[in-house]
Amino acid sequence: MKRQEWRETIGKLPVFDTHTHLNMPGVPVPAQSFWDIAHYFWFQQELWSVGYPVDAPSLPETQRIEHFVRAFDAVRNTHWHLIVRHLCDDLFGVQLVDEEGRCSADHVRTVDEAVRATSQLPGWSQTVIDRLSIRRIAVNSLPDAAFPDLPGVGVAIPGWEDQGLWSERLATALDPREVADEARAAAQARVAELARMGIRGMRVAAETFEAYGTAAVGLPDTLKAQPLMAWEAEAFLAHTLFRALGDHNMFAQLFLGIERDVSPRTSMAVNDPRRITNLYPLFERYTCGFELVIGAPQNNMDASQAARIYPNVHLGGLWWYNFRASTYAHALQTRVEAVPASKSAIVASDARCIEWCYGKILLVKWLLADFLRGQVKSGWLSPRDALWVATEWLHDAAARRYISAE
What we know:
Distance between the termini: 35 Å
Number of strands: 9
CATH architecture of the domain at 159-343 and 397-403: Alpha-Beta Barrel
Largest sheet: 4 strands, parallel
Number of helices: 16
Radius of gyration: 22 Å
Structural class: alpha/beta
Shape: globular
CATH class of the domain at 159-343 and 397-403: Alpha Beta
CATH topology of the domain at 159-343 and 397-403: TIM Barrel
Helix content: 40-55%
């Protein structure tokens, strides 16, 4: 098949988006104006880098549009610039640039009118996901999984809502053993409740393992009659959750690679070479599954190695600054070489409106089509096996993990 044929074929395959921020309280699933698209963090950050005002949302519309036009033209080499243009053209049938690739205030206003009009259409969200065969969309909050106008699409991989409260109780107790049994029982009860609801996994906070490495990983089961540090309390609860998840054949979703205290402006990816190998004792110690969602580009190979070695380790989508064409190309290569396709999901859009879910998955499908075409041309995969890999990576591996017990 030619390049366009591969893209069209991959474009029709079903997709399971394993991580979004859609349907948060008070936030509609569809974009309500052009600014819900333009001010999506991943794109807005690029605009900031060329002088777009951080306080743009509070500026008068005319002034905001002027700033946007200048910034949008200044980033026209980036992938997100390209995706925003395609998103506007594909979904709304309007161009954000002229024939020479330049944006104007009139272009922005025309797109804004189209977005406002479609946001009021019944079934608009369904129309958007049907364009790329997006079948299921995951969130990390249980109530958010009930998407308006998208019945049966939302899936929850929630965290433990009371974990912070129990962590504080443990860390402030003079003798944490007095609280530990209660905390353990509460964690076990919450996991059991989710299992009865058909929830297949939980997001478990991994910050303590990021910051304290082997000390947090190797925390002993038996607490001493002395106060705990805050990180020790957090690690104790994480270990408790891993054990409870294993009892119910569930998995722990770990988001790794983004450190929150790098700068006042934003969290950043930090490429710690020991990040994944430090976790090996967890993979050996507990029977629960582990899904690794990586935000630091240089840890993709490490995650693939872990998934190749351990039967209970699976790979999730690329996250934060790892969501780039270059890092996707590298991650897909490491995964196809050594990781069974059934253990790898590649889509985690991190979208906050359904239009960005479309845009980011469009980029993934383009990259995947080009990658697999190259694998077939080089003789590494047959066309049939390439399409099987694509189906596993885009949908089936996640569907088995998130919906049905393995």
